[in-house]
Description:
Blueprint: H1 26-41, E1 46-48, E2 58-61, E3 71-91, E4 94-112, E5 118-124, H2 125-138, H3 149-168, H4 171-185, H5 187-190
Antiparallel strand pairs: 1-2, 2-3, 3-4, 4-5
Helix pairs in contact: 3-4
Bound molecules: nickel (II) ion.
Amino acid sequence: MAQLSILEFPDPRLRTHAKPVRDFDAALQQLIADMFETMYAAPGIGLAATQVNIHKALLVMDTSQEKNQPHVYINPEIIARDGLEVSEEGCLSVPSVFEEVQRAARVRVRAQNVDGSPFERDLEGLEAVCLQHEIDHLAGKLFVDYLSSLKRDRIRRKLEKERRERAEGGAAAGAAAARAASEHSSGRAAARVI
Ligand code: NI
């Protein structure tokens, strides 16, 4: 098991389109285990392979309070959607940013599990939001793409400034890191980091 490092906006590698998974082998199982470990440690409720710089079509999720309902979706595809809902989202690749996004309220997904067998599931609420967000990642899309370009630029500058401060060290970096950490660990926020 190993924790993987997560790419952060505006890293151009987050724009890569994932390729279908063809080999359901031991390496895939290891990758899935590492992705769960990375997601739970972050902490987040969903993680797409794109975010750890692996450009294969798979994602992991666990939206349960107890963190005991892991789900893997390999080669996922939304085959039906219904209704619209606006909810607040965050993303492990866009740290400490939370914005409202409109998505389908209910979706039906077709995917494969770890041994390659196909399944379909109906999702709603947070699970539906999370799945749509992760499938976007596999297509190189981020939740900030739904915002105005003005807002997206502001977020990019904020993240670049925080990264610069972290790299330079000093009091400002400490303060920024502490702020980000406290935002991250607040229950409401953490529940939405996908
Ligand atoms: Ni995300």
